[in-house]
């Protein structure tokens, strides 16, 4: 696996939805994309429904929504995305089913890089942030996986990563507590790890602090609201130790050592 990004073809393209599958409150949309390149783990797409993509009396168009790619066929003919209904745009996407049209732009952004110094990869995800870890697991072939969810209903999505360890806030499934508890357990057993994480900012900040205190390298796929996806609007700017960067072109994957804090990073891309 190389760390180089795959560049998107110019412009949006219309693709058909092939299937819709539910996992608790989450929806996985599988679509055909015969004209697009195969994405790398950690890259994302800007998605919009081909029809009824707007709100209000005038049906004013929504902005496209950014989603990490969940899985891709090796020949790039099919893509999958994990979607959580949290607002009008994601609600419309969750309504799509086989035969409906989807507009997409991608793949965009910087992917995950290979583990360094022979370290064992450890994947840590929270909520809808598990999406880029599924394709990363496919790329790596094998890796330990820790996932955190709100409750047992949300934890239904853990089947996307068989063999993972699960934590839930309410104790309804797996460990009663935070996924960071499981991370500490793993680091006590084997500190020669490289951590790959995606999830809400509070979770990523705890992961960053734990890894920094123990000298463990970590790559974080940051979640942020994006309007364009290719650096024009400066809507996803975050501060690093080297200055401000645009997550859509300089991320969404950043080395944890570049960050002073993840707190304050915006809404989810997936």
Note down, in words, how this protein is organized.
The protein has helices at 88-95, 131-140, 179-189, 201-214, 247-250; strands at 13-23, 26-32, 44-49, 54-55, 60-61, 65-72, 78-84, 101-108, 120-126, 144-149, 165-168, 175-176, 193-198, 218-221, 237-240, 243-246, 253-255. It is of the alpha/beta class and 270 residues long. It folds into two domains: 13-108, Elongation Factor Tu (Ef-tu), domain 3 (Beta Barrel); 120-258, Rossmann fold (3-Layer(aba) Sandwich). 47% of the residues are buried. The model has no long low-confidence stretch (mean pLDDT 92).
Could you write a compact summary of the structure shown?
The protein folds into 2 domains: 13-108, Elongation Factor Tu (Ef-tu), domain 3 (Beta Barrel), CATH 2.40.30.10; 120-258, Nucleotide-binding domain of ferredoxin-NADP reductase (FNR) module (Rossmann fold, 3-Layer(aba) Sandwich). Helices cover 17% and strands 34% of the residues. The chain has helices spanning 88-95, 131-140, 179-189, 201-214, 247-250, and strands spanning 13-23, 26-32, 44-49, 54-55, 60-61, 65-72, 78-84, 101-108, 120-126, 144-149, 165-168, 175-176, 193-198, 218-221, 237-240, 243-246, 253-255.
